[in-house]
Amino acid sequence: MSLSVIASEAKQSSLVHGAGLLRRLCLLAMTLLLSFAVSPPAFAASPAELVSQFRAQHGEGKVTVDAGLTEVAREQAVAMAAKDELSHEVAGPFTRRIAKAKVGSAGENIAYGYTDFPRTLNQWINSPPHRRNLLLHGASLFGVASAHSASGKTYWAMAIGAPEDKPKREKKPARVAGHGAAATHTAKREAPAARPAPKRDCTIRMLGMCI
User: Fold this and answer.
1) Which residues are within 8 A (CB) of 164 and not within 5 positions of it... i.e. 6 or more apart?
2) pTM recorded for the entire structure
């Protein structure tokens, strides 16, 4: 075999190898791009953070996740999905359900349709009654949940509330050391009774006088 033929075959082999490497690099790049497009970013805000951001824009305080309100929301979402019905009453009156959370004032938003919270939140923001609940004054507690019905609908329930006003504890009066009486009770010390004058034996008693 001549040297020219060997050189030509080596060149073709190099070109084939290079093309294969290029294809593999292209496939790897496409895989990475698809993974970034499909996977949600790691820094996505939580529902409580999104609600807090909206409240901050309107001068209201942030909310944090509360276990009691989350359970109220979960029960409502599951009940709506089970009956495939959008209703505040499907799991019972809200006033009765929210009593378990022990909050002062509270509101509930419900919805169905979207599978993600940001778009569901946008629905509530654009609805005046739901918007008022999101901006409930003094609220700092929050809970949200979703459930899927047999028909494929996603039902959402959100509960937001202000902490319950704790009754002020009646201040107990201080106690006097060594006694059971309250310090507010002023004890008056009585003056000792005067002792009667000692009796004297009278030798002669004249006109009431003892001599």
Assistant:
1) 102, 103, 104
2) 0.60
* pLDDT value of position 31: 54
Q: Which amino acid is at 177?
A: A
Cα–Cα dist 156/108, whole Å: 10
Q: Which of 147, 144, 130, 142 is nearest to 79 (CA)?
A: 147
| Per-residue pLDDT at 127 exceeds 70 | yes
Task: Tell me the three-class secondary structure of 92-135, residue by residue.
Answer: CCHHHHHHHHCEEEEEEEEEECCCCHHHHHHHHHCCHHHHHHHC
Question: How many Å apart are CA 190 and CA 8, to the nearest integer?
Answer: 130
Query: Which tokens in the block code for residue 96?
Result: 């009765």
Please name which of 182, 129, 130, 191 lies closest in space to residue 156, comparing C-alpha atoms: 130
pLDDT of residue 39: 42
Residue-wise pLDDT tens digits, 14-30:
544 555 666 776 566 66
Helix (H) or strand (E) holding 64: strand 64-65
Long-range contacts of 146-152 (CB under 8 A, 24+ apart): 146/77, 146/115, 146/117, 147/74, 147/77, 147/78, 147/80, 147/81, 147/82, 148/81, 149/80, 149/81, 149/82, 149/84, 150/84, 151/84
Q: How far is CA 174 from CA 169, 186, 188, in A?
A: 15, 12, 18
pLDDT digits (tens, 9 = 90+) for 39-75: 444 457 999 999 999 999 999 999 999 999 999 999 9
Instruction: Identify which of 56, 88, 68, 207 has the alpha carbon closest to the alpha carbon of residue 157.
Output: 88
